[in-house]
Amino acid sequence: EVQLVESGGRLVPPGGSLRLSCEASGNTFSIYWMSWVRQAPGKGLEWVANINQDGREKNYVDSVRGRYTISRDNGKKSLYLQMNSLRDEDTAVYYCARDMGDYGVEPLDYWGQGTLVTVSS
Amino acid sequence: QSALTQPRSVSGSPGQSVTISCTGTSSDVGGYNYVSWYQQHPGQAPKLLIYDVTRRPSGVPDRFSGSKSGNTATLTISGLQAEDEADYYCCSYAGSYTWVFGGGTTLTVL
């Protein structure tokens, strides 16, 4: 059973930066695409970014492109999200999730419990 | 990258069937057979219910089924049970390894 544990969420002022981490259990981390999905308080899910197995393919939703950077360290079985120039509207629970397959077109079958990022002065 | 359109809420009585629609465009729902559905109970992470429009992951009851016609995908839940009360989200591949979710639908079991 795969487990994903996010960390790094906290209160940060507008314009600030934050780095989220997601650590995976098991030995198959390196063979799957990974994603970040966020959920603003009382709102729906929003896909944020994904990354392929070797980290060379990275994709972002328009609202975060240029401000967020997704990365991974397969040796540490960890996924990261560097968030810069944070805005009030970035306030959300951020989920780390694993793609079901290895082609980048599969759904998300394992999710962490999320980490809360609050952007406020 | 506009969110897919779902009804804000649906309801049904135990044992009945309900459907939840998910409308997109030819650039997402209509263009690919990569529509998935997620169930989310309050305070919990989403759970994958349906993928590739009609497929169910192991462990998901066959009361849950999916379909698609044109730019609209549909989740059908038959034999409603109290534990089905939750939020439901559709999600579609939108090309270039990007994804778009629907706004979510709250299911109330009366």
Low-confidence stretches of chain B: none
**Can you give the helix content of chain A as a percent range?**
under 10%
Question: What about the largest sheet of chain A?
Answer: 7 strands, mixed
Tell me the greatest interface: A-B, 26 and 27 residues
Beta-strand portion of chain B reads 35-45%
Mean pLDDT of chain A: 96
Q: Tell me the total number of β-strands of chain A.
A: 11
Overall shape of chain A: globular
Q: Measured on Cα atoms, how large is the radius of gyration of chain A?
A: 13 Å
- Secondary-structure-derived class of chain A: mainly beta
Per DSSP E runs of 2 or more residues, the count of β-strands of chain B stands at 9
SSE order of chain B: EEEEEEEEE
Question: Sheet with the most strands of chain B?
Answer: 6 strands, mixed
CA-CA gap between termini of chain B:
35 Å
Record the SSE blueprint.
The complex is a heterodimer of chains A (121) and B (110).
Chain A: E1 4-7, E2 11-12, E3 18-24, E4 34-39, E5 45-51, E6 58-60, E7 68-73, E8 78-83, E9 92-99, E10 108-111, E11 115-119
Chain B: E1 9-12, E2 18-23, E3 35-40, E4 47-50, E5 64-69, E6 72-77, E7 86-93, E8 99-101, E9 105-109
Report on this model:
Chain A has 121 residues and is an all-beta fold. Chain A is built from no helices and 11 strands. In chain A, the strands form 2 sheets. In chain A, strands 2, 4, 5, 6, 9, 10 and 11 form a 7-stranded mixed sheet that branches. The N and C termini of chain A lie far apart (40 Å). The mean pLDDT of chain A is 96. Chain B is an all-beta fold and 110 residues long. Helix content of chain B is 0%, strand content 44%. In chain B, a hairpin with a 6-residue loop joins strand 3 and strand 4. The radius of gyration of chain B is 13 Å and the shape is globular.
